[in-house]
Amino acid sequence: MNKMWVIFEREYLERVKKKSFVIATLLVPLILPAIAGLAIWLTSLDSGEERIVYVIDESGLYQDGFDINGYTIYVEDIPLDSARDELKYDEIFGILYIPKLDINNTSGITFESKKNPEITFTNKFRGPIREKIDSLKLIEYQLDPEIVAKLKTNIRIESKTMTDDGESKDSNREISFFLGYAMAFLMYMFVVVYGNFIMQSVLNEKTSKIVEVIVSSVKPFQLMLGKVLANAAVAFTQFGIWIVLMLTITTVFSAIVGFDPSASSSPEVNEIIQEAAKNKDFQQESQKYLEKLYAIPWASIIGLFLFYFLGGFLLFGALFAAVGSAVDSIQEASQFVLPITIPIIASIMLMGVVLQNPDGNISTILTIIPFTSPVLMMARIPYGIPEAWEVALSMIMLVAGFIGTLWVAGRIYRVGILMHGAKVSYKVLIKWFMTKQ
Amino acid sequence: MELLKAQNIVKQYSNHRALDDVSISIPKQSIYGLLGPNGAGKTTLIRTITQIINPDSGQVFLEGNPITEDDVRKIGYLPEERGLYKKMKVGEQLLFLAGLKGLSKSQAKVEIKKWFEKLNIEDWWNKKVEDLSKGMGQKIQFIATVLHNPKLIILDEPFSGFDPVNANLIKNEIMELRDHGATVIFSTHRMESVEELCDHIAMINKSKKILDGPTTEIKDSFKSDTYMVTHSNRLENLDHKYKLLEANIEENGLLHSEVQAVGLESPNQLLADLMPKIEIHSFTEKIPSMNDIFIMKAKEGGSHE
Description:
The complex is a heterodimer of chains A (437) and B (305).
Chain A: H1 2-17, H2 19-48, E1 51-57, E2 71-75, H3 80-88, E3 94-98, E4 110-113, H4 121-141, H5 145-151, E5 160-162, E6 168-170, H6 173-207, H7 211-215, H8 220-259, H9 267-278, H10 280-295, H11 298-326, H12 330-356, H13 361-366, H14 373-380, H15 388-416, H16 426-434
Parallel strand pairs in A: 1-2, 1-3
Antiparallel strand pairs in A: 3-4, 5-6
Helix pairs in contact in A: 1-8, 2-8, 6-8, 6-11, 6-12, 6-14, 8-11, 8-15, 11-12, 11-14, 11-15, 12-14, 15-16
Chain B: E1 2-12, E2 17-27, E3 31-35, H1 42-49, E4 57-62, E5 65-66, H2 69-74, E6 76-78, H3 90-100, H4 105-118, H5 134-146, E7 152-156, H6 164-179, E8 183-188, E9 200-205, E10 208-214, H7 215-221, E11 226-231, E12 243-251, E13 254-260, H8 267-274, E14 280-285, H9 290-304
Parallel strand pairs in B: 3-8, 3-9, 6-7, 7-8
Antiparallel strand pairs in B: 1-2, 1-4, 4-5, 9-10, 11-13, 11-14, 12-13
């Protein structure tokens, strides 16, 4: 097995020293926040442009107009058609038309524009319009506004999860959803991308013909396993660097923004943040949020992530290696790559099912099947670690699964790497698999 | 004393038999040539010895015991299909290949430096393989094969890609390795290039071994007691105990004849008989080349089929 580490070391160093690796590893943590920043910047740019909305109020209830951030609202006493003319020539952004309203009938309100406003835009009008109608209703039915206000009862149901030691902790489905989605997607991405790296690397050794030199010193299986493990280590390295970089960037960024509000370019945003910070509710809310974040069983999740990451890597990596060994060019490989990637793509497609019902029967089955468990177990565990027997069975199945694929792949690999110019079909692969050696 | 023995090796592929009951026995500290045209089965035989393929029947022994995987990993093997990692530096590449043979980094460095000096390529350590010519790459591959001082070295077509100067350099290195105790098996289809190198040879044709033995013995046994003479006046009326195979062929202003003299005690006798008749410019015994022997044997084999 010593020699496997020689293979491992070479493969690892070669991959890590590659320019493409360095670039991807350094740029992704910079690009992701940059894209987010750009998106925020673009929306702030958008609000700078003056958008005029005419309110044609036939009800006479809204002559005071509305106050909506980013828009200039004029209540115009003109016919709807002449307002439409202005809209046609892009003089204004949109027309809010309020017909004669009656407290029992509020239909017929329209908003007309050429470009679609943002999704929440019309919601901004709904509140003020309803308030006015509500106040009319209070008068009409002769109700005391104070009593009515007291009638509104705010019911919140906090979801809590009981841990194994019987302690209840706050849980948050949103956090779980996001975390599950992110981990499953990461798993998917790494398996597919690195699977292709492994395939390419095997193919390079085959076409450069160094492989026969190597297999005269090590067993083909050691070569294959060393390569797959090295790529797993490269993936871990990349992943680790990403986490460290992202944490550093976030810390540095929040240090700049958080402690020196005057440095921020948008005083409006700061105002909101400062005001919100004074607000007790907000403080409580963010406190709760943090508590929920701490309540997630990070140690178990990270442990399971590492296990399934390695397991999935070995399972699929071996298959990609077998494909690389069988073909003479990357073009030829595609027909064999498809059946390998189908379970991975299926996992991503079924992720929604698991995220919606993480403890359903389908989720249980999908997280036990070794071809889908690496991705889908990741989607499942943030909602709570499944029962011990399920996790144990899933892990055993995954180990059995990768031992199985390593065995099958190894048998194809040892023949394939020395075959040049063979026309490869599934029949041929089966023949190689059956070859005694 | 033999180092390696392959016994009755048979390897059948779906549509042809690659090796048909081939046995060879390789003496210790010798250079053993596997000769034969492309596709004869040389590489299959070598791959059987290195256990890259398993024979359908037959066995390989090393020093009297069935060869083990560990034995095989110690062989210095230069395959016919060979290459290097293109993006790697020469030094790193050799360190890696030495590591696969179990050498530590420090040991390997010493050995690599030694070989770099021997082959006058001291400044190659940091060169990238993709910048090397084919011949330069072959040198690196040769070094990788012998770096760990193997007892048994197997070279499959070692001279392909070398210019004559470098081929000679490698030839000398092979002989030196043998003199230091190594046993070398090598295969080639260019039979004429290896006569002076091989102590023993085996000829393989169409999956069968057609001939083997010590080179000198084989050559002796294929001597036809024929002498080539270059002379200026015409050779006629030769004694009846001699057979004139070719007579008086004009060549560069001189005449050329071939005389077969069976049962001659010494070539001097023929020379003495010729001297009164012609003016002799050159006189050589005709020794068949390996190529000639091979063609003779291959024809023989063909007639038996």
